[in-house]
Design goal:
2 strands, about 75% helix, two-stranded antiparallel ribbon, mainly alpha, MetI-like fold
Length: about 300
């Protein structure tokens, strides 16, 4: 009987898609994200830019003008609140880094397995509820009739309950508490990649703890530090709820001025100008931080 022809066992590989096909596939995959970015970020910013560069001279009549920006520099209250917000945000970022770095070090290098995961979940638990609930929790804890003032009276530290709200220190505590997780995550990501043998070798060569921290740990964790500081600074700079609730009427936070111009006074032109000034401040501070740390934004976002 005639034998059946055997099928070839070494089949040729499927041809790779052409370059134009790969580009089309990439464009199709990126289209939803680009449309989302354009519709919800770029277009509103363009509209705000146009609003900030016009002046209302009559009902439904506008003219191109820089009056809104001149008003900001001419009114001491505006630029003083602006400077205060920048200083407080930078201070809150520094305090968040000081609190988050030991926590991240314990999670990444000291705790192992289940203990490390448990500590990370403990940092995550406060963010299971909204920022409003967390801020109201601080109100219950620190107000004059709250838990902490009553505890101070029972311990004999104070004779009468004291008001712990409506201070700059209270605002800083709330901002650090709100932003802690956003500093811990990039720090843990950077510190986990640090080889323990480098630290052991440094100890064997006679290096002290501070020297190892300055020469090995901090340079290795620099991308995570920079990324965390960028995120925390932008979050604190644009935060409205925490300074308003914990600082009260005297919080003097720049986002409150923006809210007042848009919602209370219906002066959208001035509010748009304030919004762009805040955007310029955050961009300038991020650029300054990247320059001082010697990092590039793309590398920081990639490594963290």
């Amino acid at each position: 009987m005639p034998q059946r022809p055997r099928l070839a066992t070494n089949m040729p590989d499927a041809p790779a898609p052409a370059l134009w096909q790969r580009r089309v596939m990439l464009a199709v995959l990126l289209t939803p994200a680009l449309l989302w970015l354009f519709a919800l970020i770029i277009l509103p910013h363009i509209e705000l830019a146009l609003l900030s560069l016009r002046e209302r001279i009559a009902p439904r009549t506008y003219a191109a003008s820089l009056t809104q920006y001149r008003t900001f520099f001419a009114e001491p209250l505006y630029w003083r609140v602006f400077v205060r917000t920048a200083i407080m945000s930078a201070l809150a970022t520094a305090l968040t880094l000081l609190v988050a770095f030991p926590v991240a070090w314990i999670i990444a290098k000291i705790a192992h397995g289940r203990a490390s995961r448990l500590l990370f979940v403990v940092c995550l638990i406060p963010f299971w509820v909204s920022e409003t609930v967390r801020a109201l929790g601080w109100l219950i804890l620190l107000r004059e009739s709250g838990v902490l003032p009553a505890l101070l009276v029972r311990l004999g530290i104070t004779a009468v309950p004291v008001e712990l709200l409506y201070h700059d220190a209270t605002i800083l505590i709330g901002l650090v508490y709100t932003s802690l997780l956003f500093m811990v995550v990039p720090l843990v990501s950077s510190l986990e990649s640090l080889d323990n043998s480098l630290i052991e070798a440094a100890y064997d060569l006679g290096g002290g703890g501070l020297v190892i921290l300055r020469r090995i740990v901090i340079p290795h964790a620099a991308p995570g530090i920079t990324a965390g500081c960028i995120v925390v600074f932008m979050l604190t700079l644009g935060n409205y709820l925490t300074p308003n609730l914990l600082g009260g009427k005297n919080s003097q936070w720049f986002t409150e001025l923006i809210y007042t111009q848009f919602i209370v006074r219906f002066n959208w032109e001035q509010g748009a100008a304030f919004g762009f000034l805040l955007l310029a401040l955050s961009t300038g501070m991020v650029a300054l931080g990247l320059r001082l740390s010697g990092q590039r934004f793309v590398d920081v976002m990639r490594r963290s």
